[in-house]
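Researcher: Next sequence.
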Amino acid sequence: MPFGQKLRAGGGTIDFDKVYEDLIKPSIEAADLEPLRADEEVAGGIIHKPMYERLMLCEYAVADLTSANANVFYELGVRHAVRPASTVTLFAKDSGQLPFDLAPLRAIPYPIGSEGKPINTREYQAKITQLLREARKNTTDSPIYQMVEGFPDIQRLKTDVFRDRVTYSTQIKQNLTQARKKGLNAIRLIEQTLSPIEDAEAGVVIDLFLSYRSIKSWDDMIQLVQKMAKPLAETVMVQEQLGLALNRADQSDEAEQVLVDLITKRGPSSETYGILGRVYKDRWNSAIASGNELGAKGFLNRAIDSYLKGFETDWRDAYPGINAVTLMEIGEPSDPRKEKLIPVIAYAVERRIAQGQADYWDFAILLELAVLANNTKAALNALVDTLAHIREPWESETTANNIHLIYEARKKRSEDTAWISDIETELLKKI
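Model: Next structure:
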């Protein structure tokens, strides 16, 4: 099922966390079953192995088909392909029609109130519970098994294996959370327990990978990619983060090559172009520091171009957009294209916040937009939210660097910059 708040057809939102807590979970418990909601284990094309095991081996499954979520449909397809029975489907009323291929399913339509939460929950809990109890009769509900005679059945497999996998992965992730607080050596000790890395759970390896990122141990990130199973190492997310790590480890040429190859092989994405933009942005900084003004201008243009391509690939991702306009601001003269881009970036961020999907970067982008607009009051308000949402020190460092660029550009123009410097200082305190 989807997670968090999502837009619904015709306007408004649906709070899927409340759908789970108020409707689905009580229904499962009433059927004397144990509810187990999978965390979001899909990142950059990596599907965590325990999620597959849950889909294929758990005795019963409930799928919410509301909003035509592509991930949910994919997961339902996996489930129907390997399990002939015991899959219960539901969807929110008045939130768009089910696709043609799914319309014949015996799906339960449940009502959503004006606040985006399920209503009449007791009535619909009873319906879901009844279907779960009927599922014990092992009546075929998969369209594949209904239509294709002799289709393979996974019932012969041990159905308790996924529980051990889930428990193992959860424990390792908890250990990594604690290790990140203790530092590099603690994370390296956990890596040793996972050896050989190529045989470890994909989700655990990724958590280890990002744990090194959280403490800015770029060399360990690079080395870990070399130890990963090849299919995992070649995923988009791993290659993007490898490019980031190489760049931070002063291997700019290697970083550029990884990212350009990724775009060639897998197509453009806002994240890939955003990281490539950072590569050129750092080269611009280096050229400035060495007095190479002509070379600096070329790298600045390439950085802006990469960030723009990233934003144009997916306008919902405001991160490359804000980097583009920030670099446009510091050009001599200032690039007028930024005036058209800023409202689009602001709208993208506002929609994410309204949908309950905001993270650190959304509030940091609002902060940069306020600084660009010379709106001191809005900037201070955004700074409070930004500081409250910091997850890892390198995040505030990145924002502080962008704020500093604006500060330097306006200082050259003899504009009031003291308040901008104060914002930069507050961000740097969190590193």
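Model: The longest helix spans residues 161-182. The CA atoms of residues 243 and 257 lie 8 Å apart.
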